[in-house]
Recover the amino acids of this structure.
């Protein structure tokens, strides 16, 4: 091998290591519905890596389910291309079986065989070529999803949250490369929700499964995902890690959606808070960044919300409403407090 060959080989090895392993790619993808041209999604560019946990966040009607169905191949794009490992993802008109063979999507109704036992619901996803392996794998995935004690129960006898876990077990036992979940926590109560979030996160890392989850609750994304996508009216507003989006929201919409941020317009920030913002700029301050101090900006308390570990105060600063998360204390409506921002960011729109 010549010296040039060695150099070329080294460059190739370096490039393959440096290039992230793109699993799914969307190029300028739009989908509009014939009877609703303003619905769907528009101009989405996106790359999802192998093993990444992605959460798609946005208000109801922002296009989250449309995007998930496009990725799974249940909808065809009106414009643009979707690729899975470089191969075009075909829409429903182009194949017999709906969906993509390397992905599993958990439907809202869970698609369980309601009168069959939990064990059989899950085991039936595997072939009978290796009966011992089938049994071991079924037991393992039931344990991983904490439903082994329900093995003999019929699906119809389970709660919504338990059925959800069976549906996830059914999907994961077939070892899909991608698991797509549309609002998986909508039927799960608060405690179970926390547990299911933790289990999904652990399983995605243990199994190396790429997970794409849709939610309207920002906490789902913030607590789970490697990457968040924020959609608004069918457009992708921002993509990044939870910390990136909280620290550097692209606009006030993202800051409000993710962190219920206080948005202080330039004129208020300049006249009452001593900033020098341009007219197009706004101050973004999360409630947990509003501190009560000895000497700061004077604010009156207009509402008090008890939140277990802290109080959420609604404050009035010269006619402008701010929300502050403060330590538990004996606050009273009408009291005056002194306020300071421990952190803030300036966002222009
Ligand atoms: P999300 O999941 O974020 O609530 P969807 O993707 O379901 O949003 O919908 C996005 C937009 O597209 C909404 O305005 C919705 O009304 C519209 N839409 C969704 N599905 C259809 C459909 N089959 N026909 C017409 N409009 C649709
Ligand atoms: Mg939806």
């Amino acid at each position: 091998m010549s010296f040039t060959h060695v150099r070329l080989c080294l460059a190739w090895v370096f490039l393959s290591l440096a290039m992230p392993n793109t699993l799914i790619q969307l190029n300028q993808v739009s989908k509009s519905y014939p009877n609703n041209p303003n619905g769907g999604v528009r101009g989405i560019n996106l790359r999802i890596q192998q093993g990444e946990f992605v959460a798609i966040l946005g208000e109801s009607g922002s296009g989250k389910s449309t995007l998930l169905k496009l990725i799974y191949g249940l909808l065809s794009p009106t414009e643009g291309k979707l690729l899975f490992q470089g191969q075009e993802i075909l829409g429903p008109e182009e194949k017999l079986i709906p969906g993509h063979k390397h992905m599993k999507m958990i439907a809202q109704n869970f698609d369980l065989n309601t009168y069959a036992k939990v064990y059989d619901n899950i085991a039936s996803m595997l072939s009978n070529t290796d009966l011992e392996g089938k049994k071991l794998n079924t037991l393992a995935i039931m344990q991983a999803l904490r439903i082994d004690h329900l093995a003999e129960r019929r699906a119809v006898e389970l709660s919504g949250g338990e059925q959800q876990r069976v549906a996830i077990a059914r999907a994961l036992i077939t070892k899909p490369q991608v698991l797509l979940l549309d609002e998986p926590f909508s039927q799960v109560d608060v405690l179970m929700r926390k547990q299911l979030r933790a289990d999904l996160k652990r399983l995605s890392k243990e199994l190396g499964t790429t997970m794409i989850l849709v939610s309207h609750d920002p906490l789902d994304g913030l607590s789970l995902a490697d990457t968040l996508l924020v959609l608004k009216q069918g457009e992708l507003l921002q993509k990044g890690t939870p910390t990136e989006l909280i620290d550097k929201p692209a606009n006030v919409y993202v800051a409000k959606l993710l962190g219920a941020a206080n948005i202080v317009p330039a004129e208020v920030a300049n006249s009452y808070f001593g900033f020098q913002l341009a007219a197009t700029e706004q101050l973004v301050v999360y409630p947990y960044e509003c501190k009560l101090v000895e000497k700061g900006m004077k604010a009156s308390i207009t509402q008090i919300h008890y939140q277990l570990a802290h109080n959420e105060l609604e404050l009035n600063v010269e006619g402008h409403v701010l929300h502050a998360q403060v330590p538990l204390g004996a606050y009273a409506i009408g009291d005056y407090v002194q306020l300071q921002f421990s952190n803030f960011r300036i966002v222009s729109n």
Remarks:
- The mean pLDDT is 91.
